[in-house]
Amino acid sequence: MHTKEKIKKESLELFALLGYEGTSMANIAENVGIKKPSLYAHYKNKESLFLDLVMDMSTDYVKFIEESLDQGNVGIEKQLYKAFLTYVHDWTQDDAGNQFYSRFLQYPPQPLAKQLTDTLGETERKVRGLLTELMRDGQQKGILTNELGAETMAYTYFALIEGLVTEVVFYAPEDIIEQAKKSWKVYWRGIKA
Amino acid sequence: MHTKEKIKKESLELFALLGYEGTSMANIAENVGIKKPSLYAHYKNKESLFLDLVMDMSTDYVKFIEESLDQGNVGIEKQLYKAFLTYVHDWTQDDAGNQFYSRFLQYPPQPLAKQLTDTLGETERKVRGLLTELMRDGQQKGILTNELGAETMAYTYFALIEGLVTEVVFYAPEDIIEQAKKSWKVYWRGIKA
DNA sequence: GTCTATAAGAAGATAGAC
DNA sequence: GTCTATCTTCTTATAGAC
Asked: What is the residue-averaged pLDDT of chain A?
């Protein structure tokens, strides 16, 4: 692996676990296996390294959602359910990328807050748009209730996932996935026609 | 206000906004209006100040949930709905206490992680127990479905709230509350008998 | 309890040799 | 690109006068 890739990999893990201020350049250098000043041959400063990761994670996130929703022609219930479980599964895994994304979406380092919220806000809008389309489609096919708006169903879908994933603090990933299957029942009962 | 109370108030706000590592003792002292070393007359060090706040917030949180659930004799649907909106409302307000609690529940400063997760984990168990009882009661009265477990309903209830509250990053509190009312419909359709 | 002064170390970042 | 050495600034924390 090239040094720059290694820097990205290691700093991603450290930022995700320790936060922006909790991660030092010395710490990153040590995990990469180089000395601290060598980092500055690859990145102008700590901020630019961090923002580079933010860009990568935004791109990956959109790709991930698109792929999760693309289940082939299985019908909307299965499609939504499979994607639901895929999110919860992947986000509760010890995946530095997902942890990084959620952490800094919710708690951006204050000096970089504006740039971060702009970038990630755009990403979220894109992703929510995709799902809302799906819901609207399900309504037109008579599978989903017309008593609720498509946006509401999409919004609630994401809110529920985010809430479930948050539970990692208390429960093992397997337990959360089990719980997600049950929470899905509540949700599906709530949106079906 | 006594100095110690002022220290708590100001540091709570700073920790909630900037995180543990992002908040310096100098920063706190400045907001309190005293010099940095004076802080050490009230707290042994930064950790003990922080952990004192954690204790306070845990106590407040349990009290808050208990009060929210205590709506008088209005029937379980109204009781759950009112509490639901109260959480979302209070949690999306610019309330340092709530922000502090959620932030460090999810992302504890690594050196204090064990103490924090123990304390807050205990608190969460207590709170979830309260709600599960309510759900079981609703099932016995035939208001809530027996197709789902009481734990599932309680768990999903909290997950949905946490997910909704997370949206503060993107939307104004009023918009989230509006959305919460709609998400409630999904949820209630999902759990009613 | 609050202050000034200061220690001791860690932070981000640069200079310049190889 | 990577290193050693160094700078500057900021960090937590203490000593000791008032």
From this structure: 96
Closest-CA distance of chain A to residue B34, Å: 24
B21 to chain A, any CB pair closer than 8 A? The answer is yes
Using an 8 Å CB-CB cutoff, list chain A residues near B155. Answer: 167, 179, 182-183
Fold of A51-191: Tetracycline Repressor; domain 2 (1.10.357)
Dist CA A30 CA A65 (whole Å): 34
3-state secondary structure (DSSP) of residue A192: strand
Contacting residues 28-57/A vs strand C (CB within 7 A): 36-37, 40, 44-47
Is the confidence at residue B10, as pLDDT, over 90? yes
pTM (two decimals): 0.95
Grade residue A140 by pLDDT with cuts at 50, 70 and 90.
very high
User: Which CATH fold topology does B1-44 show?
Assistant: Arc Repressor Mutant, subunit A (1.10.10)
Helix (H, G, I), strand (E, B) or coil at A132: helix
CA of A109 to C1' of C13 (A): 19
Give the start-to-end residue ranges of the domains of chain A.
1-44, 51-191
- At residue B187, the pLDDT reads 98
Q: Which of B80, B152, B150, B138 is nearest to A185 (CA)?
A: B152
CA-to-CA separations, A133 to A128, A136, A138, in angstroms, rounded:
9, 5, 9
